[in-house]
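Continuing the batch. This is chain 6 of the set; chains 1 through 5 are on the previous pages. Same settings as before, nothing changed between runs. Recording input and output for traceability.
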Amino acid sequence: MKIIALSLLLAAASPVLAQDYHMQPIPIQTRWAKDVSPTNALKEYPRPQLVRANWTNLNGLWDYTITAKDATQPTKADGKILVPYPIESALSGVKKALLPNQNLWYKRSFQKPALKTGERVQLNFGAVDYQATVFVNSTQVGQHEGGYTEFSFDITSALKDGSNEIVVKVFDPSDQGVGPHGKQVLNPKDIYYTPTSGIWQTVWLEVLPAHAISSLTITPDIDRSVVNITVNSAATSPVQLMIDGKTVNGTTNKNMAIPIKNVRLWSPATPNLYEFSAKLGSDVVKSYFGMRKIAVQKDEKGFDRIFLNNKPYYNLGALDQGFWPDGLYTAPTDEALAFDIIAIKAMGFNTIRKHIKVEPARWYYHADKSGMLVWQDLVNPNQGLPEGAKAAFEKQSAEEVLQLHNYPSIVTWVLFNEKWGQYDQERLTKWLKAADPSRIVNGHTGELLYVNEQLRSPSPNAYISADMTDVHAYPDPMNSLKMNGKAQVCGEFGGIGVFIPDHQWITGSAWGYVQEKPAGLKAKYTIMQQHLQLFQNEGLGGSIYTQPFDVEGEQNGLMTYDREVVKIPFAELREIHKFLNPDMGIIPVVTAKDADLTEPGLLYSKLLQEYIDGKRDGAFLKKMAMMASQAGDKSGAALAGADYIKTIKTPLSDDDIQSVIQFTASTKDAGFAYMNSNAEVFKRTMGDRKYTVAVMNMIFKGEMEPLMQAKAGWDEIEAKIKPYGAAGEEIFLRAKTIAFYNEQNWAGYKPVAKAYLDKYGKNISGNEKTTFQQAIDQH
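Output for chain 6:
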């Protein structure tokens, strides 16, 4: 019997719009955010494997407007947004949520490029989340669905001389839609994070000849000492490659197997890359490739292991989410984008598992150049599998595999994660292997998931058709199943929560599978790595630690979310990792502060004494409340939180609203009355539903939970929360439904569950609604 969690998710707040661009306030930011301006937003050419000289970067300030989903194109802008930072991010200059019943509109003008006879103008988008409709001079030039893949439109026929106008309409329902959305949810909490909506990668124009190169397909073959290159274009034409010091003539849309003498292999220790160019008529593009091979083979002891370049190679990895406090899905700068990879390498890892996100092309270029193996997750389908979710997942996964084919760093495709939207596993694993035979396939990472050595759910046909077996074990690692022909890996483990004061996104909590103080992290982590060494002797071929960086509410990274503090020094991490990754190659230089190992309780006690001595300024009280809750002093946290709320003045800023929510957990807290008396302000910022969910959680914590713990009857609980109106009724029906479900009290369950679904079913996920309804039908 699955136990259903009672808690509802609390929404993040949105701010009042700024008319002139400036970065919006956030709890912490990275060192690169200060370098971002409307004139230099991600200025690098965005597609390193298909580089053209003649291009125009359209990043910068655009007009934006949010309208109802069924509204026509607006005539007036709400303000300016800095592209390509998502509208929810601080760097966009807006930091406002986009809801499933809204559209986001972008608009900017540009000058028509000078064109020679027959030349075309192509408008390119790195990625737009989720559905984009593009207009040029009021003419619709195309549509694209899917938040993670690039797309382009030929806009030549829509152009006019002089100034031209681009309009992009975006619809993004995040986790309420049918499409893949990764870790983005409208109500972020724990392992789920703030959504990214709209344009979040570079937008640019290119002038192309009438016959142009559309893409390249590059597949190395080190066993034959050749690289296979296909130059793709709309028509079959002669093409010329300049590669490895020689010129090779061929034909577009046909594979050219090009011999490479004295092959310089690509690996994390020696990331050798070959540069080349392709010429089709007047169209010239520059590109590169790496000569490497990945496979699962038996070692000399008979273990099935991951082989890199025909030798056993332990994949020592970290689980990288790709989120940023200032840009969410979008790194502030290209330097920041590269930093994550070189920081992970400086820690002594050789592998990154890119967790249910597809990065911009330049991220993979930095991985190729720096020398980092990548396990690339496909972005999972909506976990509830609503109608249309499977089709969207398969279409967009095919686009992801095709788009990422050429990067030598990517060695493994990961199909499913912990049964999130899993279906047709055998068919889809076989499809993925056939779509890209040059890589190995992890058909289901964490299909067997253990938490505190307890198996979450069995899988009778585990890892069918895949190249590896992959167990997730929190917090301590495990070896996965031994199955003939499959490598054994531990696809996730760890999650050691360690908070660093003044470097936290959410200061009231430090989520992790296990909590540790900074001074104890190194010992705990070292022991985990030593167990991996023991498992390696028993056949383990790879492991992925959760995780390199804190992310929003998760504070279980080896570095803080702002990338400022490393919790175990880099040199010490490399010393721990050298047994599983002995050949690290050249170590990049990375700058970060070492963590302060002072006992956190001692830091808090100093603040408490200052409070006793009369200190009451707002910034001090806010910090004290945060430190108190994390030091376990609940009464101190309540005191400081209540006093902090008294210092807040109207009109309320976004930071004020965030703080009230943060320090208000129940109806007993001072912030509850404050939220009620300022309800309309909070609703404008949070949205009506997110506000209601927050109030419901507080009613449960302050009124219902104490009575439930005292074994009070449901009639007494209902009478207690009646004064809270609809929010009280909804949380009461939810709590009673879940309690009867978990107790398997089906006689009591059926009428209350039916009442809950009839009245409030529209407010819960499709997956949960199905679970409740199935229980009604079965009993």
